[in-house]
Amino acid sequence: QIPNSPILLRVTERTCEEGYQADSQGDCKATVKIIYLPEWFRGLSFFLFLLNVFLALGFMAWTFVSRNHPIVRASQPTFLYLVGIGCIMSSTSILTVGFDDKDYSDDT
Hints:
The chain has 108 residues and is mostly helical. The chain has four helices and two strands. The protein is 48% helix and 6% strand. The two termini are 37 Å apart. It has helices at residues 39-65, 70-74, 77-91, 93-97, and strands at residues 20-22, 28-30. Helix 1 (39-65) runs antiparallel to helix 3 (77-91). A two-stranded antiparallel ribbon has the order 1-2.
């Protein structure tokens, strides 16, 4: 409030409920609380990725060694190699779970 102003402004502080804060217009806006992933989560996701890759590579090596066995031959080793490659490719999505904004943003 300016005492000598021809236009008197009356400013009152607005109280908002829990989780909200008043902006310059007096409207209550929700406050944003960012919850980041814990540090151990990245290690867990990387471990699970490596586990999947090593298992897929191990089964692909077993398929190569046993490719002349009648059961493996009936299962078509080329198809089994493609399944192993598909497992590796699909498990790469586990890596992206460990990425978090706090590592790549300038605000933290």
